[in-house]
Amino acid sequence: MENGKDQKINCDMKTDLNLLLECLKYQMDHPASQKEALVTIYSVCQQNGAACEYFREIGGLIFVWNLAKSQVHSLVQEAALFTIGGLAENNVFCQQMLCTAELFKDLHTFLTNKDSSMNLKRMSVYVLLVLASNNNSGQTHVRESGCLDILLHLFRVIPSESQINLFDGKIDQYHLWSSVCSNLCVCVNNPQNEENQKACSLVFPYAKYWLQSSMKAEIIRPICSFIGLTVANNSRTQNFFISIGGLAVLDELLFKLMHGSLGNNANIKLAVVVTKTLDACIANNPAVGVHLPKYNIVPNLLKLLSYNILDSGERFSIILTLGHCTEVCEESQYTLIKNNGLPLMIQALTEMQDDELNKAATFVLQNCKQMTEKLSVKMNQHSFQEDERRILEVDWQNKERILEDYWNEAKQILYRIKGLENEQEENIRREILIDEDTPQEKFLQAMTQHHQTNSSKQPSDNGCRIGRLSLNSRNFSKTLQSCQYLCEQHKIILESETEYKRKLRRSIMANKNTSAYNNASFQSDAHSKNQTMKQIYSLQDQDLSENHPFEEENTETLSNSSTTTLKKRRIRKDFTSEEISYLLEGVRKMGHHWNSILWAYPFQKGRTNVDLAKKYCRLQKNGKSRNTQPL
């Protein structure tokens, strides 16, 4: 049922689009009706991407474009361009179909024609924006068709003609100029287009002047976005912007936004936008380092970072900019340390739960760590002048205790993390071995754990202490017996071990009685063997030269008798490849504790700790355990 319903909706959509296209064709003398039909087509295609594709397939896209360039009523032209932009924005196939040299020439005509209305120019810029967005081919057509030159011309002329501070009175001109800025941004970015970046950098002097002349967010935001994308990852445009005093203007603007009567929340947010532009101007360009000491960028950024209204993304942008400043300039590193920047970085590293922000803070700390090492070496070698050395000493004395506290806090956090990791590993190892431990090993583990617990208490607990004696399975019993003060847990351990030894003695006594009986039987069998041997020797003495047929038979009988009467030896069992793997892994984890290894892994029945030790020695001699060393 659902499939049928969906098919019905698709059919209704197709019917509507066909009717709207027919309305456009048969209403050529009614501009208002055509505009209404175009707006309806735009609305339908905005709600469903498949509608854009269907409208293109039935020839609607080409018809609307022909309608836009047929120089009919301007009202229809504006609506047609608006609809074309919406179709290209929502469907990549429509974008590719429109991306032709002929269409860009027509758009160039719309922009240069003096009779074109302001709205028609705005719609033309909108179509250029959609066609160049995320499209290298569209970026190339914008430049080769001359549309990029027209956009740069509008970027320069519109603010000058309207006296930029009076944009509020000419809102249509501002909207056109804002659309031009957005269009320039997509022409140079995503993908990055170096040729377009070079062309756009020619208007940097105008952008610099307007940043100096206006403090309005409506002016600063578009210009900062344009500058940031034009200089991004391009050392030539970065150096050109710096050469015309661009960094000085951004630094001054950052200061104005944060200080005085302008220091409100809106301006603080705007200062972050300026910070991102600063970062784009200096990132990945070592040549910028010589220019940074001329300005107060680092102190201003540290001041901006201290505001509590910033979110984690804005803090990340500021700290990343500090990282790029300190990466290329040693004086910026010293300035950051001098202005109490290290505690701010460590605070961001320890308090914020954002991975990207933590990476940025670590980046800054790493840069400053190198600077502190260089400062200490230079001071030891007296390479600074006396006045500079005295200033450094005073600064370090004032901040040494604060920095030391923060560094100690960071180290303590690291120690806690390592302690938790070691504790988790120890718990896992105990869970693996706990079921296989002998009673004696369990006593040793319990006593060692209890000792570790008591060793962290105050010296007033005079029970349980064994000094620096290393406990093992041989001396822990004697240590307990010789201790004058035992806690309840150790008393239970000692009593349990005594009971275990008592049962062990009983088992040994029972084995001795069985051995005595077996020894008597063995002596009787030995006597019979001696008698048989004497008979054989006497027969051999009678005639050594004759072969007696019963001699071999008697010898074989004697051999079988001795095999059955002697004590049975263990059947030899070769080590399998799995057992060798268990042995090597056990030595790597536990060292030469053969009993622990024997109990921890599923060796063959009858395997002993001596077997494991001998096998490991043979493996070492054969060179098979060369890479396996005990911990």
Question: What does this molecule look like?
Answer:
The structure is a single chain. By secondary structure, the protein is mostly helical. It is built from 30 helices and no strands. It has helices spanning 2-26, 31-47, 49-57, 60-69, 74-90, 92-98, 101-112, 118-132, 136-144, 147-162, 171-188, 194-200, 204-213, 217-231, 235-243, 246-258, 265-282, 297-305, 312-328, 330-338, 341-351, 355-380, 386-433, 439-455, 476-482, 488-542, 550-565, 577-590, 594-600, 609-622. Helix 8 runs parallel beside helix 11 (171-188), helix 16 (246-258) runs parallel beside helix 18 (297-305) and helix 17 runs parallel beside helix 19 (312-328). The longest helix has 55 residues, at 488-542. It is elongated, with a radius of gyration of 45 Å.
Which helices and strands, and how do they pair?
Blueprint lengths: L1 H25 L4 H17 L1 H9 L2 H10 L4 H17 L1 H7 L2 H12 L5 H15 L3 H9 L2 H16 L8 H18 L5 H7 L3 H10 L3 H15 L3 H9 L2 H13 L6 H18 L14 H9 L6 H17 L1 H9 L2 H11 L3 H26 L5 H48 L5 H17 L20 H7 L5 H55 L7 H16 L11 H14 L3 H7 L8 H14 L9
